Amino acid sequence: MNPSGSLRAGEEAQFLAEAFAGSGGENRPVVVSTPGVYATVMDAPGGSVVFLNNATGKPLDNLTVRVRNVPQGVTAESARVGRLDPQRNGDEVTVKLTLPTSDFIALRRK
Predict the structure, then answer these.
(1) I want to staple 32 with a disulfide (CB 3.0 to 4.6 A). Which of 37, 42, 88, 93 is the partner?
(2) The domain containing residue 71 runs over which residues?
(3) Are 55 and 38 in contact (CB under 8 A)?
(4) pLDDT tens, 33-51?
């Protein structure tokens, strides 16, 4: 946190981390719409779990989460808000949700 009390000082560190990860996030398995939200995907035989951590310091009303390499026929459910409406584009699934602090999304194969 910078002296003004804002978390925006972390943008430089995020930029550096993304530069080391390569191509500005285009190859990551999960991409979120808001800087300061960190996401991780864990795959299992029955589906995947996307862990979300909101480090922005404020609740988010409209977070978009895009997950790559998702097989056909999955359902999406948030641990906090319940069933989500996944939108598919090729092998990607996008969901929108509110994120006060943290959550996880279960992508279950039918």
Answers:
(1) 37
(2) 28-109
(3) yes
(4) 999 999 999 999 899 999 9
